[in-house]
Design goal:
4-stranded antiparallel β-sheet, 4 helices, 33% helix, alpha+beta, 152 residues, Ubiquitin Conjugating Enzyme
Amino acid sequence: MAALPKRIIKETERLVSDPVPGITATPSEENLRYFEVTIDGPSSSPYANGVFQLELYLPDDYPMCAPKVRFLTKIYHPNIDKLGRICLDVLKDNWSPALQIRTILLSIQALLGAPNPDDPLANDVAEDWKKDEKKAIQIAQEWTQKYAVKKD
């Protein structure tokens, strides 16, 4: 396996030494380009008290192209589909090599706090959100309780 670029090593070290509040990103021992990520749902959102598992993978051409990130925890959100794919501008058209793993994870956490049904990936959820936001938020809270709350 090729040596990791210095940039990935630096970013990884910073994630470990200076973690982002509410976010953990741990590189896999088998593949240092693959991270196991957890993001706490923002307290003022329907995802509060949830801990969401994600996977993040740095492709060979990172940082020239965006990391691949997806939710492993089921979530009811207009910008995250059933496969866990995320509709977020910085993961697609607005990616810049100046961005870092931590920036992306903060953007994903912010997306949990501010769902955008006008740029949906899960059209059915976005429709629900637009038709009856209260009900959609209630479903999001139920899913969070069901799938994302750690059982002691």
